Amino acid sequence: MTLFRRLLLVEWSGLAVAILLGALALSVIAPNFLTEFNLYVMLRSLSVGLLVAFAQMVTLGVGQMNIAVGALGGLTAIIFGATIELYGFPLLLAIPLALAIGALGGLINGLLTARTGVNAFIITLATASAFTGINFGITGSIPFYKMPASLVAFGDHHLGAMPYLLVAPLIVAFLLGLFFSRAAPGRELLAFGGNPQAAELSGISRERVVVSAHVLSGLLAAAAAVLAVAQLGSAQPTIGADWLLLSFAAPIIGGAALTGGHISVLGTLFAVLLLGLIQNGMVLAKVDPYWVQFVLGALILAAVGLNRWRAVNSGVA
Amino acid sequence: MTDEAMSEMSARRRFGLGGVPAQFGLAIIIAAFWAVFAWRAPGFLSPFNLFSVGRALAVDIVIGFAQMAALATGGMNLSVGSIGVCAVMTGGYLMQTLALPVPVAIFGALGLGAALGWLNGFVIARSGVSAFIITLASANLYSGAMLILTKAVPLNSLPMEVGAFGKMKIAGLVSPLLVIALAVGLVLFVFYRHSVLGRQILAAGANARAAKMSGVPVDRVITISHALSGLLAATAGMMVVAHLGAAMPAVGGEDWLLPSFLGPVLGGTPLSGGAVAVAGTMLGALLVTTIRSGLLVLQIGNYWLQLYLGVILLLAVLVDRYRALYQERRGIPMR
Amino acid sequence: MGLALEAVSKSFPGVKALDGVSLDLKAGEIHALMGENGAGKSTLIKIVTGLIRPDSGRVLLDGRAVQFGSPRDALSEGVSAVHQERNLIPRFSVGENILLERLPTRNGLVDYGAVAREARRYLELLDPGIDARAKVLSLSVAQMQIVEIAKALSSEAKILLLDEPTASITEHETAALFKLLRKLRDDGVAIVFVSHKLEEVFAIADRITVLRDGKNVASGAPMEDMTRQTLVSLMIGRPERVAEIAERQVDPSRVVLEARGLSTTRGHKNITFALRHGEILGLYGLVGAGRSELAHAILGDARISGGELLIRGEPARIRDVHDASTRFRMGYVSEDRKQEGLILMHSITRNVAVTIWRRLANVIGLINPRAESRAVAPFIKRLDVRTPSLGQLVGNLSGGNQQKVSIAKWLAAQSEILIIDEPTVGIDIKTKTYLHELIGEIACEGAAILLISSDMAEMITLADRILVMHGFRLVGEVANDHQYETTSRAIIGYIHAVGDVTPAPAG
């Protein structure tokens, strides 16, 4: 097999190439692209999206879907804002609390799914509605604007082109990568996703796996929400409203199998990066912003097509 | 068998041929809500409210049908909203910009919907990639293309009869849109229960491999199902145009995603395919519209609506699941 | 360590699966468990492996009463099992699958080097050719089964349960497995061996327990005291009756299906044979020989890359099964009835009528459900399918009845060329005999049948001629004199001839 073919067989290679080519093209077309400021803006815009993608990736890993990703994010953002603005919580308390709320939401999703046997798609469809309802019911659609200066500053600061905001998601990416490739509990999650019956027969507890996956998903959604508040400088109830389709797009482009048991942290990371690159490029090249959606759709098809080709050609289809 | 597979089996068991029991429960719940709302808010049963509810219900029903047509094959159609808005803008464009007669414009819009749906089905059948992913992609492609072409400019100067149709009242309280929705339901019911194609679709949805090896032209059947889904989405789009009296690019899109599932899911259509519940989908949409309207009339926070909807969906699904389990444990044979 | 089940009973809605059943498994023995499908074997297995709990009775481990709440409990008590269906994680490596329950770790992280080393220890006992780092997805069916057996071995269980372990593996691997099992037995392991293959049971087992209709008909009987007749009559409750197939005169000139030098994308090369009107042409081969793949290619489900296929004398390009069925009146009874042959969640009527919907439709394409049922009823009656109603979901039927439904749809379609693939796998003996007679009847009525089977006795009972396939090639043809000894020897001879090519001596 030629080197070219072998390279193509590596899962995220297509994405890496696309990113390199895209970056190359952009640096030629738009002189502003390689400036520190622009790179900072682009990387900053990835931060929230990365965690949102991971939140869905985790549930895809066990072969399920979390439709409540955005709704939970929005609810957590609001509660986060409320604890700070209305109850004067310090960040050191408010942030863990927000994460705990996210985990709690995930726990509800996980327990309902595991205990009732109803499809997670439907369960999270329902809880998404419920979470959004609570969100808007509490706030009456009014955001919390008085976020602590330190938080807002954190959302703005950067070291060279690297925004502080991106550090946490990158650390999370590293930890998730380690978790799913080298940690026994992570392998158990993927084993269950790959073949639930076989996993159960090997003594892996279905309930524990499903609940852990959803709790982790909720936790990541909450983390994304906190970052979103930092990025925006205020806690908006609309946070999370546009997360859902994107949360699927990135892991899928990154090579996740919808049926479960196969996810790629690196692939998801590259997918988010590529999407950010495209968006940035469009702004720089002054392309009609309406092209973004179109390109996203084309990207999903291309990625899936490549994966399919790859599966067929490595003899595992 | 895992619990999930079993619950799907239970869901399926009820619908070998279009189960009645689940819908009966749903009808009772709906009746109960109506009773409560009518008692607490006399305005609920006013001709005006009934008319608005009926009109909104009509659109929700057809959106639900669009998703149901895809679910029948065991896949989802995430592009329901996108196809809807493409049809809306195409219809508007034909009517207003090209000044074509309204029926021609409607025909064109429906044709586009069917074509976009057909494209979905074609790619799904040929590539073997799941409908979820293909329609996730096509939703973005279609919406994106629409936005690029229309620059998100709404078309407000449609022929008068369009808006008039939307405002028309039969017997003072029924919207012709509702009649259309019910007629579509009737056609679908006959289609899935009595036609060869309907049976082939359900066979392909239940077990594509077995259907194929039994001589069912599975690829063709899946393509047709998605074309049907697109056609229904376009129909819903046209109904919205009549309702609004204008063609707006803000219609549809992700907004339709949740409603498109609520009707079928509440009505008992299994997500894994192989069966449809036409009456159930209508009842499911009715339940949702009832609650939305009731809360509005009772002036309970509009915002809390979502919470109630979510909880009710959960309860309905759980009750249903336990009912099926109970029947299984008792060894009561199901239809 | 010994395992004993005392007076165990288990009921499910509508059926009493086990009624006061006992099993006495001693350390250091190979104990066969046999019984027809529906006899209660799988329920018994699920109780032993901790998947379900008995309603009454006791499970004793070395005389100590135990309660398995989950497979994990059974595993921790030293009970390990290889089940009928594959239970492997497709995208994990062989090693990881083998050690899934107890992945070796170093500093809290999985130690993949140790995984591979450990796994290799057990793989080598069975098939050193399997790479511990390979993904299970890339293995053949036979290799997957070997991996599962290695997995059971790796748990160093004192009680090992094997459910149809040789279903998908070759003779060579079976021999290696048996050698291994004997060694384990000698080391004191208690082994439960569940199999339909009588020859294997006679070859390997020390004692045998037989179930019928949820009760014991033999409990721990020594194998020396068993004969084939006794065993079969214990299983079915009466002496075995061999199917009576009427003699047919096959006109050799009426060729309905002919293959000339066919090759397929699946790997077949130079397949040439002719199938005649009213003939039962057998296609015998071991698992993995390529027979079902050939059937799929003929039907248009896999691609023919060379050679010619003639239907009724005319060259035919069959695009898919729909084509095969509507244009050429072909039918296919699949070997995998649950996944490919039937739609479990639909009713009997729907499953049978699927081939005749077009015919049942009126002018505007609508079907009257009552007309559908009426059209289906005669076939259900003819096949003696036991069911309270035609609306019964096929998933609720017994294996034998399911297979009958799977055949019924082709009878309804009036297929003239019928490819029947492993018709009686996992079917109770009574239904087996019935199906054999049915196949004979269908041939008498003029259908041309290509019968694929790896059951020698079945093949010799039914076929007029037998083609032998091995390694995706046709390696011989045997005229069937219906005498087991001679014909089976001829067939096996052809298969071994391929493998036993000795190089010409030098000089």
What is this structure's SSE topology?
The complex is a heterotrimer of chains A (about 325), B (about 325) and C (about 500).
Chain A: H1 3-9, H2 13-29, H3 36-61, H4 69-85, H5 91-116, H6 120-139, H7 149-156, E1 158-159, E2 162-163, H8 164-182, H9 184-194, H10 196-201, H11 206-232, H12 244-253, H13 265-284, H14 291-313
Antiparallel strand pairs in A: 1-2
Chain B: H1 3-13, H2 21-40, H3 47-71, H4 80-97, H5 102-127, H6 131-150, H7 160-167, H8 176-194, H9 196-206, H10 208-213, H11 218-244, H12 257-267, H13 278-297, H14 304-329
Chain C: E1 3-12, E2 15-25, E3 29-35, H1 41-48, E4 56-61, E5 64-65, H2 71-76, E6 79-82, H3 94-98, E7 105-106, E8 109-110, H4 112-126, H5 141-154, E9 159-163, H6 171-186, E10 190-194, H7 198-204, E11 207-212, E12 215-222, H8 228-236, E13 255-264, E14 271-276, E15 280-284, H9 291-298, E16 304-311, E17 314-315, H10 321-328, E18 330-333, H11 337-341, H12 348-353, H13 357-360, H14 369-382, H15 399-412, E19 417-421, H16 429-444, E20 448-453, H17 456-462, E21 465-470, E22 473-479, H18 484-499
Parallel strand pairs in C: 3-10, 3-11, 6-9, 9-10, 15-20, 15-21, 18-19, 19-20
Antiparallel strand pairs in C: 1-2, 1-4, 4-5, 7-8, 11-12, 13-14, 13-16, 16-17, 21-22
Description of the structure:
The complex is a heterotrimer of chains A (about 325), B (about 325) and C (about 500). Chain A is mostly helical and about 325 residues long. Chain A has a single domain (about 10-15, about 30-305), classed as ABC transporter involved in vitamin B12 uptake, BtuC (Orthogonal Bundle). Chain A contains 14 helices and two strands, in the order αααααααββααααααα. Chain A has a two-stranded antiparallel sheet. In chain A, a hairpin with a 2-residue loop joins β1 and β2. Chain B is globular, with a radius of gyration of 20 Å. Chain C folds into three domains: about 5-235, 3-Layer(aba) Sandwich (Rossmann fold); about 240-245 and about 250-330 and about 415-505, P-loop containing nucleotide triphosphate hydrolases (Rossmann fold, 3-Layer(aba) Sandwich), CATH 3.40.50; about 340-415, no CATH class. Chain C has 18 helices and 22 strands. In chain C, α4 (about 110-125) packs across α5 (about 140-155) and α14 (about 370-380) packs across α15. At the A-B interface, α5, α6, α10, α12 and α14 of A face α1, α6, α12 and α14 of B.
